[in-house]
Design brief:
Elements: H1 6-13, E1 17-21, H2 28-37, E2 41-42, H3 49-52, H4 54-57, H5 65-77, H6 79-85, H7 89-98, H8 105-114, E3 124-128, H9 136-142, E4 148-152, H10 155-165, H11 171-190, E5 196-200, H12 201-206, H13 208-219, H14 226-229, H15 237-240, H16 245-250, H17 266-269, H18 272-290, H19 307-327, H20 330-340
Parallel strand pairs: 1-3, 1-4, 2-3, 4-5
Helix pairs in contact: 1-8, 5-7, 10-11, 11-18, 11-19
Length: about 350
């Protein structure tokens, strides 16, 4: 049994749930692990259960035991939780049942996070997933006081990192996704600016102590130097024991000391044509918003409209639509994860 008293459950319900947002391959996992190193922060591996299960459970006002049992089953069925969170299903269900009379969807979500590291002196939870860029308004409605750390990386470096682990290789496709995801985040930020902290990946890896100082100040938690100098202490046990080749390839940077030695690798890796394509799509926006200087002559951006650009835009719209359909249908999501593409 969980042993959680009604007072303890209410206390957990008052712990803020915050979010890391940013395009994939922008340092979101490294940042989440650095946050998890802090003794007062619980920041588990990414899972999408909050947005996946909201369509099924988010509107329930009076939770029954059957509702709580089904919700617990669906939580445990999520592969990221099954593989990396190491939550005891009996303890989780016991805490759900103990919270039955005051249960809300946000409270139950926080109880899931609590069970990841119940031994900590928890002041806040942190969740992260790149797909959250599509769901920030929904997250704000669920957790109106949440804070967000927006991590952004040079779009040209993002292309190189993205290609290394994913099947999408075209620079235009990756850059357009970078542009639109950051525009979505900036749109949410504009109406909630006091709760957003923007962090450049380049600053995080070149000045980790300064970056961590800024993060802790924003979150109003004590500065904890270990986040910057020994983030490996926050790596999840399930990550350390996973020796699968693809997993290690995706997350190789979190197992090594923080370094800035590869920041400009894109200059030698991308062709002049690929750099031009990327800058044609995102150059002006990236320079204006984040200070990423264009590589082209005099920083002049050519017209981005072309047949190829239109195809890229349509692809992004299709991807956006697919995410919204799949993540709002848990059955479909679980089937795709199990039988079609386990990395979805």
């Amino acid at each position: 049994m969980s042993g959680l008293t009604p007072d303890k459950i209410r206390q957990i319900g008052n712990i803020p749930l915050n979010f890391v947002c940013g395009k994939e391959r922008s340092g979101t996992t490294l940042l989440q692990i650095m946050l998890n190193t802090h003794p007062n922060i619980v920041a588990p591996p990414e899972s999408r259960f909050i947005v996946i299960l909201h369509s099924r459970y988010g509107q329930i006002k009076n939770w029954t035991e059957d509702d709580l049992n089904h919700f617990c089953d669906d939580i445990i069925q999520e592969k990221a939780i099954e593989n990396f969170w190491a939550i005891n299903k009996g303890d989780l269900l016991a805490s759900f049942l103990a919270a039955k009379d005051i249960a809300t969807y946000p409270l139950l979500c926080k109880l899931v996070f609590y069970h990841f590291s119940p031994e900590k002196d928890i002041k806040m939870f942190f969740d992260k997933n790149p797909v959250y860029a599509f769901y920030l308004p929904q997250l704000k409605r669920l957790f109106p006081d949440a804070k967000y750390i927006h991590i952004v990386r040079d779009y040209r470096a993002n292309i190189v990192s993205h290609r290394r682990v994913f099947i999408i290789k075209r620079s235009a496709d990756i850059t357009y996704r970078w542009l639109k995801m950051n525009m979505l985040i900036e749109g949410a930020k504009s109406s909630n600016i006091e709760n957003f902290f923007t962090l450049k990946y380049e600053n995080l890896v070149s000045e980790p102590i300064k970056s961590v100082t800024g993060i802790c100040s924003f979150l109003q938690v004590p500065f904890y130097e270990k986040m910057a100098v020994k983030h490996s202490s926050g790596i999840y046990p399930g990550y350390n024991t996973n020796v699968k080749k693809r997993f290690r390839k995706i997350h190789q940077s979190v197992f090594t000391p923080i370094t800035s030695s590869f920041l400009n690798k894109w200059e030698k890796t991308l062709t002049p044509k690929e750099i031009m394509q990327a800058e044609n799509i995102a150059g002006v926006y990236a320079e204006k918003m984040y200070g990423y200087k264009q590589h082209g002559k005099d920083g002049v951006q050519k017209s981005s409209f072309s047949a190829a650009w239109l195809v890229t835009k349509l692809k992004y719209k299709a991807i956006n639509k697919i995410y919204r359909i799949v993540l709002n249908n848990p059955w479909l999501y679980f089937k795709i994860k199990k039988y079609v593409w386990k990395y979805f």
